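[recover] target loaded
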């Protein structure tokens, strides 16, 4: 959890306002403002599984089902992808507020990369200088099942060293038991099976894809086999963002997230892609959000073509955000045609295009839609070029 004394903010509301501004720049919208599908249109709503059927391994997983249901209710087949944020209070223990960011309907690892970049940017803008990103991968259900089976066998061998209160859970929920042992610092966890050792070649390739996004962006990370969660909730990547305590030098978790396809698919009753990150901040002083401002409509749409260009998109978008230049984007689209169709629907007068050639040369094509004229602009000069062409700054806004 983020402590306000470690940030530049005096109260919870100030932190949340700044964090939400970052999230909304990247396309996240308030979940509560997105219209829901009418009740009669929800199929099999009475047969959705109960939360009690889910084996939660972490305390912070218990709010995930309600978020998954709300995101699914706001999904529109025509749109395909949902980016949403919501805040939720925690009254148990130390009062805190969590900002959750959800990407639903995007099967590519760009979803997790986007969430990591946004969460890290939020922490950086809060003034948290030293941060540690830890990542693990538990694979798809089959790979995770083999891992959990061996965790159960391992715990059985070390059952005498486990506290009597935790022993009954070891047989029913090995993964949840292992998470508890990790939290307690049990000496046996260092020799426990590692989930990444059970990944198939296809799952390893998928994981490398995520790591490549982070490396191209310049986001440091470390692989950590102890970042785990319930197999009923998660698949593939799980990550934890921590701040380094200035007094003790130990990491303090401030955000947790990953891909929760199994849970989303369970409630959707069909295959569904979903990823999220939850950023927790202590509740102190004013906590009610200020009236949100409607930002000026972006005059540009950023489109990519090819794998290399997609890897570099996050870096260009963050550069534009820091320069207060708004831009639409659709990193979750796999094809350039879908991106150009989205640009047409938004009627943006400019389109920024990065293909493989531009990605390798460090340039971006700036195309004016009305005249179809275009110019190659070095990425290092892009913000200056766009401001000379009267691109509206992000701060220009009117009251909602």
């Amino acid at each position: 959890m983020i402590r306000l004394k470690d940030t530049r903010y005096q109260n919870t509301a100030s932190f949340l306002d700044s964090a939400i501004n970052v999230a909304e720049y990247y396309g996240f919208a308030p979940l509560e403002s997105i219209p829901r599908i009418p009740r009669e249109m929800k199929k099999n709503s009475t047969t959705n599984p109960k939360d009690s059927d889910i084996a939660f391994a972490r305390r912070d997983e218990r709010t995930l089902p309600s978020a998954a249901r709300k995101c699914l209710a706001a999904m529109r087949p025509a749109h395909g992808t949902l980016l949403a944020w919501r805040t939720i209070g925690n009254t148990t223990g130390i009062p805190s507020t969590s900002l959750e960011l959800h990407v639903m309907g995007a099967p590519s690892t760009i979803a997790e990369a986007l969430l990591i970049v946004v969460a890290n940017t939020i922490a950086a803008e809060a003034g948290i200088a030293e941060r540690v990103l830890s990542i693990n991968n538990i694979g798809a259900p089959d790979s995770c099942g083999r891992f959990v089976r061996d965790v159960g066998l391992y715990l059985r061998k070390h059952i005498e060293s486990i506290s009597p209160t935790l022993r009954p859970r070891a047989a029913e929920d090995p993964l949840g038991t292992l998470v508890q042992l990790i939290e307690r610092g049990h000496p046996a966890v260092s020799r426990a099976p590692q989930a990444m050792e059970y990944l198939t070649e296809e799952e390893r390739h998928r994981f490398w894809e995520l790591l490549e996004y982070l490396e191209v962006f310049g986001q440091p990370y470390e692989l950590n086999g102890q970042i785990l969660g319930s197999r009923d909730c998660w698949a593939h990547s799980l990550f934890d963002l921590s701040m380094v305590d200035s007094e003790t030098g130990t990491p303090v978790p401030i955000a947790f997230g990953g891909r929760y396809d199994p849970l989303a698919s369970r409630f959707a009753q069909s295959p569904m892609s979903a990823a999220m990150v939850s950023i927790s901040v202590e509740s102190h002083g004013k906590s009610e959000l200020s009236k949100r401002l409607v930002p000026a409509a972006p005059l540009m749409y950023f489109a990519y073509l090819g794998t290399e260009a997609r890897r570099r998109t996050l870096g260009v978008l963050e550069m534009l955000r820091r320069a207060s230049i708004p831009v639409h984007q659709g990193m979750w689209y796999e094809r350039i045609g879908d991106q150009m169709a989205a640009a047409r629907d938004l009627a943006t007068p400019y389109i920024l295009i990065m293909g493989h050639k531009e990605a390798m040369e460090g340039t971006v094509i700036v195309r004016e839609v009305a005249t179809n004229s275009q110019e190659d602009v070095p990425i290092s000069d892009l913000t200056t070029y766009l401001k000379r062409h009267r691109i509206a700054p992000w701060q220009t806004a009117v009251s909602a």
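[recover] notes: The chain has a mean pLDDT of 90.
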